[in-house]
Design goal:
Layout: H1 2-7, E1 14-16, E2 22-24, H2 27-35, E3 49-50, E4 53-54, H3 58-79, H4 83-91, E5 94-97, H5 99-108, H6 110-113, H7 120-134, H8 144-168, H9 176-184, H10 190-221, H11 230-240, E6 246-249, E7 255-257, E8 260-262, E9 268-271, H12 272-275, H13 315-332, E10 333-339, E11 345-346, E12 350-351, E13 355-361
Helix pairs in contact: 3-9, 3-13, 4-5, 5-10, 7-8, 7-10, 8-10, 9-10, 10-11, 10-13, 11-13
The structure holds protoporphyrin IX containing FE (HEM).
Length: 370
């Protein structure tokens, strides 16, 4: 990220970097790449990316996306009233982030991530995936060999369960693994179905948890914004620190993109982090100003959930949960934050720095809080 930021002169929409990669930071060009309306890029989806290519067909991808959204939507509707208690139990008086956000999301969605009657071995495997691969910095705590062995073990358990659920012919999905199994159909490779399920763990506990972390971090370090609309806080946090921040795409044929000729040998990188801070499209692009969302923004350079046919299937449920949690955290409590880490944690997802959050009663808030 540092080198992309250093190479960006604040005016261009696209350039070829010193390493030869093409960087896209203009919103129109970013939409052209991500939307791929003219088929000028090789069809792909980061979510459905599996070891041997891309899980498909497209009809199964759509079915799985819809199934997941409706399962999560139902869970959020039924358990909305539990959120204040969850916040009180997990975040009061102090919590350590970003893990606190991931674990809170995990707790709230526990039964849709994996239904309670799934085998104990699978529950342990999911627990292991979260602590060894999803939490910020988790991977670096294990050697390559240990990661390989762990992945092999987890995939074995998951594939067994995929096969067992196929045999059982589940009628209505109970959890996201059922969604993947039923949406994929009987001819899909069980290993690929297991990988799609892993994508759900990364999207829910990982991405959603990190996005919550960024909103809490920014609201807590900008106390003057804590009375702003929760939806503005969440949007502004996703603008400044888009969790999904970089997308690599390959042109399927030679064509012009933002005045540059690109071809099948190029790697085109859409950097959402810079799209969201492009000075031609944002005033004071690096400032956290939730109030900029008070008036509708026309054609904003803003696409935290992607763009086009592969736009995130979980975008609306994600926004609902984030806004509900930020409303509780900033309205019911007095929030203060102190950073303990060294800046954002950069991986496939952009995680917040380590920080501590304190939540105090509004009436008894320290330092004269309301
Ligand atoms: C803050 C949280 C999240 C962020 C930032 C995010 C971001 C994204 C982005 C940028 C894409 C497009 C990828 C591409 O074009 O290659 C995507 C796709 C997808 N996301 Fe999310 N996501 C989040 C949460 C979720 C959740 C909670 C779910 C669970 C339902 C989910 C399910 C999906 C699916 C199924 C796709 C693939 C859509 C398709 O290809 O048709 N995401 N997400």
């Amino acid at each position: 990220m540092a080198f992309l930021t250093a190479e960006f002169d604040g005016t261009r929409d696209m350039w070829r970097s010193a390493s030869g990669r093409l960087c896209v930071v203009g919103p129109a060009a970013a939409r052209e790449v991500m939307g791929n309306r003219r088929g000028a890029f090789v069809e792909t989806s980061d979510f459905f990316h599996v070891r041997n290519g891309v899980f498909g067909p497209r009809s199964a991808q759509i079915e799985i996306g819809r199934g997941a959204r409706s399962l999560i939507r139902h869970r959020l509707d039924v358990h909305r009233a539990d959120l204040p208690r969850l916040v009180a139990e997990r975040l009061v008086p102090t919590s350590t982030w970003p893990d606190a956000g991931n674990l809170l999301v995990r707790e709230h969605l526990r039964d849709v991530l994996l239904c309670p009657d799934a085998p104990a071995e699978l529950h342990m495997a999911v627990e292991g995936i979260i602590t060894r691969a999803v939490l910020a910095g988790a991977r670096q705590r294990h050697s390559v060999m240990s990661r390989l062995l762990f992945r092999r073990r987890v995939m074995r358990v998951l594939v067994q369960e995929v096969q067992a659920r196929r045999r059982a012919r589940v009628a209505a999905p109970r959890d996201l693994l059922d969604v993947a199994v039923t949406g994929a159909g009987l001819s899909a490779d069980p290993g690929e179905v297991a990988e799609v399920y892993l994508s759900f763990l990364f999207a829910t506990v990982g991405s959603l948890g990190f996005a919550l972390g960024w909103s809490v971090y920014l609201a807590g370090t900008h106390p003057d914004t804590s009375t702003d609309e929760p939806s503005w806080i969440v949007r502004e946090a996703l603008r400044l620190w888009p969790v999904a921040w970089l997308f690599a795409r390959r042109p399927s044929r030679e064509h012009e993109l933002a005045g540059v000729t690109v071809g099948p040998h190029d790697e085109v990188n859409v950097c959402l982090y810079l799209v969201h801070r492009h000075p031609r499209h944002w005033e004071r692009p690096d400032e956290f100003e939730p109030r900029r969302w008070a008036a509708p923004l026309h054609d904003p350079a803003f696409m935290p959930f992607g763009f086009g046919p592969h736009t995130c299937a979980g975008a609306t449920v994600t926004m609902t949960l984030l806004e509900d949690l930020i409303r509780i955290i900033t309205r019911d409590w007095h929030l203060s934050v102190s950073a303990t880490g060294n800046g954002p944690h950069l991986g496939p997802a952009l995680a917040p720095p380590r920080f501590t959050a304190e939540l105090h009663d509004r009436v008894a808030a320290p330092r004269g809080g309301e």
